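job 3f2a | input accepted
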Amino acid sequence: MDFDYSETQQALSVAARRMIRSMLDPARLKALEESELGYDGDMWDQMVEQGWCAIPLQDDTDGLEYLAVIATELGRAAAPGPFLETASSALILSLLGTSDAAAAFAEQIGDGAATSLVRSTAQRSAAVLDGDSLVLTGAPVLVNWGASVENFIVAASTPSGVQLLHVRADAPGVVVEARNSFDNQRVAQVSFQAVRVAVSDSLTSEPVDEDALALALATVDLLRAADLLGTMQHVLELTVAHVSSRNQFGRPLAALQAVQHKAADMLIAKDSATLAVWEAISLHVAGRPDVALARAAAFLSGRAAERVLADAIQLHGGLGFTSEYQLQFYFRRAKAQRVRLGSDRDQLLGIAAGLVHPSVRFGLAVADA
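job 3f2a | predicted structure (369 res):
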């Protein structure tokens, strides 16, 4: 199968890379990490202006492949900001949103309303009906850019089933506490204490099928996996450039067979993850989404990125351990993004569940299989 970018995807990749490179460099990344906002507001405005947040909200496609191209470029630059979270929220709305409220909220996201998904691997938030409102309660969970976004999307258990709810970050009862993050993406602990959400603000007109929700979340994780592909590609380029220019024992490091083997291992790890991620994306675009493959691709990308970064640091020698050198941004990003995808145990159990449950694996109802 050919996984080269299409002409449209290539044009988007070039445009995104040019814009991001013009606004971010290692010095700027360091300054942003120490700033109050944490990301470049002007770059965010340009993303919104170019319609990137609205890509999943088109009538004919959810645009997963185009979002993956942008995510790859963000990973290549170690760019901080709530784009992945907002794009993931728009993608969830495209896949599962069925109500009038979902359509109205999608327009807000397309116009740049930063939004994060609230996901818990422990206990799902719960909501009970009280008049014309749902009263939402949820234990603390870490949310990416939770202290910076305007909205949350919450999958809540209700007496009638799972509902997707739109919760304003400033709503009474929403408790947001900033927490330290390992990389330059920010996190916050978010909990819900008797938050009242109007029934009319439910993003789903009917309860969400558990299999459909699992498939949608696995699809969303492909964007984080694509981010890691960009991280690996840039780090591989940095490493090859370093060992080619650095002389030792009277010749370039790249001339040493052990160094060549290590670089080849990095390339194989990166390419293997790329094949898995784009296979999962291609099946989704073709209308044959595979939750097991999507989960496996996310798992492989996280594991590959960790290995590539560890090898890159070794091949850079002492330079790889210094905070002044840009490699540190990518090492921390790879580690943190892998954790955000879930523990190894949870990811492997998710892959197994997709493999043994046909309705989840192929995104079909059992009766239709």
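job 3f2a | Confidence is low (pLDDT under 50) at residues 360-369.
job 3f2a | closed
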